[in-house]
Write a structure and sequence with these properties.
This protein is mainly alpha-helical. It has one domain (2-252). It has helices at 2-19, 22-46, 58-79, 85-91, 93-98, 104-110, 115-132, 140-170, 175-184, 197-206, 209-221, 226-252.
Length: 259
Protein backbone atom coordinates (compact mmCIF):
# COMPACT_ATOMS: atom_id res chain seq x y z
CA UNK A 1 0.00 0.00 0.00
CA UNK A 2 2.93 2.31 0.60
CA UNK A 3 3.96 2.09 -3.04
CA UNK A 4 0.37 2.47 -4.21
CA UNK A 5 0.12 5.74 -2.26
CA UNK A 6 3.43 6.91 -3.69
CA UNK A 7 2.36 6.04 -7.23
CA UNK A 8 -0.96 7.87 -6.79
CA UNK A 9 0.93 10.95 -5.61
CA UNK A 10 3.29 10.74 -8.59
CA UNK A 11 0.28 10.47 -10.93
CA UNK A 12 -1.22 13.54 -9.26
CA UNK A 13 2.00 15.49 -9.83
CA UNK A 14 2.13 14.39 -13.48
CA UNK A 15 -1.51 15.38 -13.99
CA UNK A 16 -0.81 18.82 -12.50
CA UNK A 17 2.08 19.24 -14.92
CA UNK A 18 -0.07 18.35 -17.95
CA UNK A 19 -2.97 20.50 -16.72
CA UNK A 20 -0.71 23.53 -16.49
CA UNK A 21 -0.52 23.65 -20.30
CA UNK A 22 -3.81 22.38 -21.67
CA UNK A 23 -3.13 23.43 -25.27
CA UNK A 24 0.07 21.39 -25.51
CA UNK A 25 -1.54 18.40 -23.79
CA UNK A 26 -4.64 18.57 -25.96
CA UNK A 27 -2.70 18.86 -29.22
CA UNK A 28 -0.42 15.97 -28.19
CA UNK A 29 -3.43 13.75 -27.43
CA UNK A 30 -5.06 14.76 -30.71
CA UNK A 31 -1.86 13.85 -32.53
CA UNK A 32 -1.96 10.38 -30.97
CA UNK A 33 -5.53 9.89 -32.18
CA UNK A 34 -4.68 11.06 -35.72
CA UNK A 35 -1.64 8.77 -35.88
CA UNK A 36 -3.71 5.81 -34.69
CA UNK A 37 -6.42 6.69 -37.22
CA UNK A 38 -3.97 6.77 -40.13
CA UNK A 39 -2.60 3.32 -39.28
CA UNK A 40 -6.16 1.98 -38.91
CA UNK A 41 -6.97 3.43 -42.34
CA UNK A 42 -3.85 1.78 -43.77
CA UNK A 43 -4.95 -1.69 -42.59
CA UNK A 44 -8.53 -1.19 -43.79
CA UNK A 45 -7.26 -0.03 -47.20
CA UNK A 46 -4.94 -3.03 -47.42
CA UNK A 47 -7.89 -5.43 -47.37
CA UNK A 48 -9.50 -3.78 -50.37
CA UNK A 49 -6.93 -5.71 -52.41
CA UNK A 50 -6.69 -8.99 -50.51
CA UNK A 51 -8.93 -11.17 -48.36
CA UNK A 52 -6.18 -12.31 -45.98
CA UNK A 53 -2.79 -11.25 -44.68
CA UNK A 54 -0.26 -13.98 -43.81
CA UNK A 55 -3.20 -16.33 -43.34
CA UNK A 56 -5.18 -13.98 -41.08
CA UNK A 57 -8.48 -12.26 -41.86
CA UNK A 58 -8.94 -8.49 -41.76
CA UNK A 59 -10.24 -8.46 -38.20
CA UNK A 60 -7.59 -10.86 -36.93
CA UNK A 61 -4.90 -8.63 -38.46
CA UNK A 62 -6.47 -5.58 -36.85
CA UNK A 63 -6.36 -7.44 -33.53
CA UNK A 64 -2.56 -7.58 -33.85
CA UNK A 65 -2.51 -3.85 -34.52
CA UNK A 66 -4.73 -2.94 -31.55
CA UNK A 67 -2.82 -5.27 -29.22
CA UNK A 68 0.48 -3.71 -30.27
CA UNK A 69 -0.91 -0.30 -29.37
CA UNK A 70 -2.20 -1.55 -26.01
CA UNK A 71 1.19 -2.96 -25.00
CA UNK A 72 3.06 0.08 -26.31
CA UNK A 73 0.77 2.62 -24.64
CA UNK A 74 0.74 0.79 -21.30
CA UNK A 75 4.54 0.62 -21.31
CA UNK A 76 4.84 4.32 -22.11
CA UNK A 77 2.25 5.28 -19.52
CA UNK A 78 3.79 3.30 -16.67
CA UNK A 79 7.54 3.49 -17.31
CA UNK A 80 8.14 6.84 -19.01
CA UNK A 81 10.24 8.01 -16.06
CA UNK A 82 13.20 6.10 -17.54
CA UNK A 83 13.71 8.95 -20.03
CA UNK A 84 14.77 11.24 -17.15
CA UNK A 85 17.34 8.84 -15.72
CA UNK A 86 20.21 9.92 -17.98
CA UNK A 87 20.07 13.43 -16.54
CA UNK A 88 20.01 11.97 -13.01
CA UNK A 89 23.31 10.23 -13.66
CA UNK A 90 24.84 13.19 -15.48
CA UNK A 91 23.91 15.72 -12.79
CA UNK A 92 24.40 13.48 -9.76
CA UNK A 93 20.71 13.42 -8.81
CA UNK A 94 20.85 9.62 -8.55
CA UNK A 95 22.73 10.05 -5.27
CA UNK A 96 19.62 11.69 -3.79
CA UNK A 97 17.35 8.98 -5.20
CA UNK A 98 19.42 6.22 -3.58
CA UNK A 99 18.97 7.67 -0.08
CA UNK A 100 15.19 8.05 -0.36
CA UNK A 101 13.13 5.64 1.82
CA UNK A 102 11.81 4.10 -1.39
CA UNK A 103 12.96 1.51 -3.89
CA UNK A 104 15.11 3.51 -6.30
CA UNK A 105 14.15 1.44 -9.34
CA UNK A 106 10.44 1.89 -8.64
CA UNK A 107 10.89 5.65 -8.39
CA UNK A 108 13.00 5.89 -11.55
CA UNK A 109 10.48 4.01 -13.65
CA UNK A 110 7.20 5.40 -12.31
CA UNK A 111 7.87 9.04 -11.41
CA UNK A 112 6.59 10.33 -14.75
CA UNK A 113 3.29 8.58 -15.40
CA UNK A 114 1.95 9.70 -18.77
CA UNK A 115 -1.66 10.74 -18.14
CA UNK A 116 -2.31 11.22 -21.86
CA UNK A 117 -1.35 7.63 -22.58
CA UNK A 118 -3.66 6.44 -19.81
CA UNK A 119 -6.49 8.49 -21.35
CA UNK A 120 -5.62 7.02 -24.75
CA UNK A 121 -6.51 3.59 -23.37
CA UNK A 122 -10.19 4.55 -23.68
CA UNK A 123 -10.26 4.79 -27.51
CA UNK A 124 -8.02 1.72 -27.66
CA UNK A 125 -10.56 -0.17 -25.56
CA UNK A 126 -13.32 0.87 -27.96
CA UNK A 127 -11.20 -0.25 -30.93
CA UNK A 128 -10.51 -3.61 -29.26
CA UNK A 129 -14.21 -4.13 -28.58
CA UNK A 130 -15.06 -3.22 -32.18
CA UNK A 131 -12.55 -5.75 -33.52
CA UNK A 132 -13.63 -8.54 -31.16
CA UNK A 133 -17.33 -8.28 -32.06
CA UNK A 134 -16.38 -8.89 -35.72
CA UNK A 135 -14.49 -12.09 -34.88
CA UNK A 136 -16.18 -15.48 -34.68
CA UNK A 137 -17.68 -16.14 -31.21
CA UNK A 138 -14.91 -16.75 -28.68
CA UNK A 139 -15.10 -18.66 -25.36
CA UNK A 140 -14.76 -16.65 -22.16
CA UNK A 141 -11.42 -18.34 -21.43
CA UNK A 142 -9.96 -16.69 -24.54
CA UNK A 143 -10.38 -13.24 -23.03
CA UNK A 144 -8.78 -14.35 -19.76
CA UNK A 145 -5.80 -15.83 -21.62
CA UNK A 146 -5.53 -12.67 -23.72
CA UNK A 147 -5.37 -10.51 -20.57
CA UNK A 148 -2.89 -12.92 -18.97
CA UNK A 149 -0.50 -12.71 -21.91
CA UNK A 150 -0.89 -8.94 -22.06
CA UNK A 151 0.49 -9.01 -18.52
CA UNK A 152 3.31 -11.31 -19.71
CA UNK A 153 4.06 -8.74 -22.41
CA UNK A 154 4.20 -5.94 -19.83
CA UNK A 155 6.67 -8.00 -17.79
CA UNK A 156 8.95 -8.04 -20.84
CA UNK A 157 8.46 -4.29 -21.36
CA UNK A 158 9.41 -3.75 -17.70
CA UNK A 159 12.53 -5.85 -18.19
CA UNK A 160 13.59 -3.82 -21.23
CA UNK A 161 13.22 -0.56 -19.30
CA UNK A 162 15.18 -1.97 -16.35
CA UNK A 163 17.97 -3.02 -18.72
CA UNK A 164 18.00 0.49 -20.14
CA UNK A 165 18.36 1.93 -16.62
CA UNK A 166 21.20 -0.50 -15.83
CA UNK A 167 23.07 0.43 -19.00
CA UNK A 168 22.63 4.13 -18.27
CA UNK A 169 24.80 3.73 -15.17
CA UNK A 170 27.53 2.22 -17.32
CA UNK A 171 27.18 4.44 -20.37
CA UNK A 172 25.64 7.86 -20.88
CA UNK A 173 24.69 6.87 -24.43
CA UNK A 174 22.31 4.10 -23.37
CA UNK A 175 19.25 6.02 -24.58
CA UNK A 176 19.89 4.37 -27.93
CA UNK A 177 18.66 1.09 -26.46
CA UNK A 178 15.26 2.42 -25.47
CA UNK A 179 14.81 4.12 -28.84
CA UNK A 180 15.89 0.94 -30.61
CA UNK A 181 13.22 -0.88 -28.60
CA UNK A 182 10.62 1.73 -29.60
CA UNK A 183 11.50 1.28 -33.28
CA UNK A 184 11.71 -2.51 -33.04
CA UNK A 185 8.24 -2.79 -31.50
CA UNK A 186 6.84 -1.62 -34.84
CA UNK A 187 7.10 -5.22 -36.08
CA UNK A 188 4.40 -6.06 -33.54
CA UNK A 189 1.81 -4.30 -35.68
CA UNK A 190 1.87 -7.23 -38.08
CA UNK A 191 1.44 -11.01 -37.74
CA UNK A 192 4.88 -12.58 -37.18
CA UNK A 193 4.37 -15.03 -40.06
CA UNK A 194 5.25 -12.29 -42.58
CA UNK A 195 8.87 -12.36 -41.35
CA UNK A 196 11.55 -14.95 -42.08
CA UNK A 197 12.36 -17.64 -39.51
CA UNK A 198 15.67 -16.03 -38.40
CA UNK A 199 13.90 -12.71 -37.75
CA UNK A 200 11.13 -14.50 -35.84
CA UNK A 201 13.78 -16.24 -33.73
CA UNK A 202 15.53 -12.95 -32.86
CA UNK A 203 12.29 -11.19 -31.93
CA UNK A 204 11.05 -14.18 -29.91
CA UNK A 205 14.13 -15.04 -27.84
CA UNK A 206 16.54 -12.08 -28.01
CA UNK A 207 14.18 -9.10 -27.99
CA UNK A 208 10.79 -10.77 -27.37
CA UNK A 209 8.53 -8.39 -29.31
CA UNK A 210 6.60 -11.34 -30.74
CA UNK A 211 5.94 -12.70 -27.23
CA UNK A 212 4.70 -9.26 -26.17
CA UNK A 213 2.20 -8.77 -28.99
CA UNK A 214 1.61 -11.89 -31.08
CA UNK A 215 1.26 -14.36 -28.19
CA UNK A 216 -1.76 -12.57 -26.58
CA UNK A 217 -3.50 -12.41 -29.96
CA UNK A 218 -2.82 -16.06 -30.74
CA UNK A 219 -4.03 -17.08 -27.30
CA UNK A 220 -7.31 -15.27 -27.92
CA UNK A 221 -7.67 -16.89 -31.33
CA UNK A 222 -6.73 -20.34 -29.97
CA UNK A 223 -3.79 -20.55 -32.37
CA UNK A 224 -0.91 -20.82 -29.87
CA UNK A 225 0.20 -24.36 -28.86
CA UNK A 226 0.58 -25.05 -25.16
CA UNK A 227 4.35 -25.51 -25.54
CA UNK A 228 4.78 -22.00 -26.91
CA UNK A 229 2.43 -20.56 -24.29
CA UNK A 230 4.64 -22.02 -21.55
CA UNK A 231 7.75 -20.93 -23.43
CA UNK A 232 6.44 -17.37 -23.58
CA UNK A 233 5.99 -17.27 -19.79
CA UNK A 234 9.50 -18.68 -19.27
CA UNK A 235 11.02 -16.14 -21.67
CA UNK A 236 9.31 -13.26 -19.85
CA UNK A 237 10.44 -14.54 -16.43
CA UNK A 238 14.05 -15.12 -17.52
CA UNK A 239 14.13 -11.73 -19.22
CA UNK A 240 12.90 -9.94 -16.07
CA UNK A 241 15.27 -11.81 -13.75
CA UNK A 242 18.21 -11.06 -16.06
CA UNK A 243 17.25 -7.37 -16.12
CA UNK A 244 17.01 -7.21 -12.31
CA UNK A 245 20.40 -8.90 -11.90
CA UNK A 246 21.92 -6.42 -14.36
CA UNK A 247 20.40 -3.54 -12.40
CA UNK A 248 21.82 -4.76 -9.08
CA UNK A 249 25.27 -5.27 -10.56
CA UNK A 250 25.18 -1.78 -12.07
CA UNK A 251 24.11 -0.13 -8.81
CA UNK A 252 26.89 -1.89 -6.90
CA UNK A 253 29.43 -0.49 -9.35
CA UNK A 254 27.90 2.99 -9.42
CA UNK A 255 30.29 5.81 -8.53
CA UNK A 256 28.40 8.70 -7.03
CA UNK A 257 28.84 12.29 -8.14
CA UNK A 258 30.62 13.07 -4.87
CA UNK A 259 33.28 10.40 -5.53
Amino acid sequence: MKYVRVWVQLVHCAFSSYASNRIDAGSYFLGKLIRFGFFWLFFISLFHYTDSFAGYTKWETLLFFVTFNLVDVLGQALFRGIYLFRNDIRKGNFDCILVKPLNSLFYILSRLTDILDILFLAPLGVALWYVVIHLPPLPAASFFLYALFLFVGLVIVLGIHILSAALTIWSMESEGMIWFYRDATAIGRFPPEIFSKPIQFVFTFCLPIIVMVAFPVKMMLGALPLFWAMMGCIIALVFLIGALVSWRVSVRRYSSASS
